[in-house]
Write a structure and sequence with these properties.
Elements: H1 6-10, H2 18-24, E1 27-33, H3 37-48, E2 53-56, E3 72-73, H4 85-101, E4 106-115, H5 124-130, H6 142-156, E5 171-174, H7 175-181, E6 191-200, H8 203-218, E7 223-225, E8 228-234, E9 237-242, E10 253-262, H9 268-274, E11 285-292, H10 295-300, E12 305-309, E13 315-321, E14 324-328, E15 332-333, H11 344-357, E16 368-375, E17 394-399, E18 408-413, H12 420-435, H13 458-472, H14 474-484, H15 488-496, H16 512-521, H17 527-534, H18 545-559, H19 563-580
Parallel strand pairs: 1-2, 1-10, 2-7, 4-12, 10-18
Antiparallel strand pairs: 3-6, 4-6, 5-6, 8-9, 9-10, 11-14, 11-15, 11-16, 12-13, 13-14, 17-18
Length: about 600
């Protein structure tokens, strides 16, 4: 049996110092404001170029817009209708790459479109193309969808390993075959079109892998601090402020950098306002989702995503994930000064779209185990309908506090999960240009986190399980491999060197040693960080009062919480989970 020691566990990626490390050395070549997927990916890219780079995030890492995704990595077949061929080509290229460099979290996703007409939309689509997306939404019929999928498939050719396609070509089915494949489907369906994109099983964990890769690449030269906000300027320096719990009561910190990157997503204009340069770049729209514990609906999807057009022209989805069903999304104008929540009206909207596709399946609010909302970081779009706003991105440059002698500020406008590596590369190149430094290496094809050495064949998987199953048991090893990729080796090292490791009674899929490893190495500040982002407990509806208390007990020692702090963290987590599931039971 292989033996793991404390030395193996200590090899795990260390935390990057937090606010204290920033105070100890209050300067860097590049300061990135915003710890969502685009900020983190840019941090990793610059760290790989040998740049002294700092990342700050006002909340927890990946807790804003990046935490509210539809859990898809996709090329955006519907963007073709708006004429965004550059974006679709880039997105499909990045999707194909992520299937190879992050196979632990990004996996092929069979996607089916129910179609209720043959020719609808065929006249309106060219007009929307010529008007760059403007126009009244109309239902897409079979002919229009067929044309779009043929073009979409053409972008995927040659994108896989050894020149093969990364995903299969699309298929069309008639009514009879469609109802055999999906018996619960609305019987008015005329066709179904099935194509392949990719699922993103754990968005937060993929982003954390990128963060840890950046820290490992940069070593002591790079730093990352969550719960640290950019709140103003002091001359040519950015003023950073720690939140309660992250800086031990530290005062505001003026921080010097040669380049500032604003990657704060839909908050970009508010961040620029704080930095003394008001902008009006953004026009984000809110998208909400619900997660259902509904075995009948789960079975009705037959393991595939249902991706379709609702009566208002909005593209929506029903998606099996982690034994639950994800339903979304809306596309509503939003004021960033207002709370970002999934409303009861949006829940009604989701129930109506489920009834449209699966009219024989009833759904009620008691089956909702999680709900979430976020604002897409879209550019300002005037009177253009939200569904037609470009999902492409651009970079805007200005000077800090509008001072010609101050550091350059690069603001990312737009950006989406699928294209994070490409947008980060563009941001990093602009920063390198400002620093007069060359690019050392590309991030193309570089494995992400637990995707390095991940077994992508059944034979390779069984070999991995043979080795690590001998340490923690084969079933447990399989769970950890699916949860962390090959980073599971570090988690296993922690588990076997933790004499108090034991399964949680109320969430037996996790163990106390595993949670202590996460608390020790992943910059966990609050209990909610563990429930909502380091694990899937909240997403699957398993972050109830007893489980939350167990998790708090497991990590209290690592976090230095006494009884009062533990109680405060449970209360804070209760509020966070309560916002996600309004009917949640109070935490004991």
């Amino acid at each position: 049996m292989p033996q793991l020691t404390a030395a193996d566990e200590s090899a795990a990626t260390p935390a990057a110092g937090g606010f204290a490390a920033l105070a100890a050395r209050p300067y860097a070549d590049v300061l990135i404001v915003g710890g969502g997927i685009n900020g983190i990916a840019t941090f990793r890219d610059l760290a790989m170029q040998g740049v002294d780079v700092v990342l700050v995030e006002r909340g927890d890492f990946v807790s804003g817009a990046s935490a509210a995704s539809s859990h898809m990595i996709h090329g955006g077949v519907r963007y073709l209708e708006n004429g965004e061929f550059r974006l679709v080509h880039e997105a499909v290229t990045e999707r194909n790459s992520l299937l190879q460099i992050a196979p632990h979290y990004v996996r092929p996703l069979q996607t089916t479109i129910p179609i209720f007409s043959t020719f609808s939309g065929i006249l309106g689509a060219p007009l929307r193309f010529l008007r760059h997306g403007a126009g009244r939404p109309t239902e897409r019929g079979a002919l229009l969808i067929k044309i779009g999928l043929v073009i979409y498939d053409s972008f995927s050719r040659g994108g896989g390993l050894f020149g093969r396609a990364a995903v299969p070509r699309h298929e069309f089915r008639g009514r009879a075959q469609s109802l055999r494949d999906l018996p619960q489907l609305n019987r008015d369906v005329k066709y179904t079109a099935t194509y392949w994109d990719a699922s993103l099983h754990d968005p937060e964990r993929l982003a954390l892998d990128l963060l840890h890769d950046g820290i490992a690449a940069g070593g002591e030269r790079v730093r990352a601090a969550n719960y640290t906000a950019a709140v103003g300027v002091d001359g040519s320096r950015v003023v950073l402020r720690p939140s309660t719990g992250s800086g031990s009561g530290a005062a505001d910190l003026p921080f010097a950098a040669s380049v500032v990157i604003n990657a704060s997503g839909p908050w970009t204009d508010l961040t620029n306002l704080a930095l003394g340069d008001p902008t009006a770049y953004m026009g984000g729209t809110k998208g909400s989702h619900i997660v259902l514990d509904h075995p009948e609906l789960l079975a009705a999807t037959a393991g595939r995503e249902l991706f379709f057009e609702h009566s208002d022209g909005r593209i929506v989805l029903i998606y099996p994930l982690k034994g639950r069903v994800l339903v979304g999304t809306t596309d509503l104008e939003h004021d960033m000064r207002e709370p970002i929540v999934c409303t009861e009206a949006e829940v009604d909207y989701f129930f109506a779209l489920i009834a449209h596709v699966f009219p024989g399946i009833s759904v009620d609010r008691e089956q909702i185990v999680y709900r979430f909302a976020g604002v897409r970081p879209l550019p300002g779009h005037g009177d253009l309908a939200p569904g037609f706003v470009s999902r492409d991105y651009r970079i805007e440059a200005q000077r800090l506090a509008d001072d010609p002698a101050a550091p350059q500020v690069l603001s990312l406008v737009g950006g989406k999960w699928t294209t994070f590596r490409a947008s980060a590369e563009h941001l990093a190149d602009r920063a390198l240009e400002a620093l007069s430094r060359p690019r050392r290496r590309s991030t193309k094809g570089v494995p992400i986190g637990g995707g390095l050495g991940y077994p992508t064949t059944e034979r390779g998987r069984q070999r991995w399980l043979d080795t690590h199953g001998a340490i923690v048991g084969r079933e447990r090893a399989a769970v950890l491999l699916d949860r962390y990729g090959t980073v599971a080796e570090r988690v296993i090292a922690s588990i076997v060197t933790d004499p108090a490791d034991a399964p949680l009674h109320h969430a037996p899929g996790y163990s106390t040693g595993e949670l202590r490893h996460l608390a020790r190495h992943e910059q966990v500040v609050h209990l909610e960080d563990m429930l909502l982002r380091r694990t899937s407990l909240a997403f699957t509806g398993a972050a109830g009062p007893d489980a939350a208390a167990e998790v708090a007990d497991a990590i209290a020692g690592e976090r230095g919480w006494d009884a009062a702090a533990r109680r405060a963290e449970i209360d804070r987590a209760r509020a966070a989970v309560g916002r996600a599931v309004p009917a949640a039971t109070p935490v004991a």
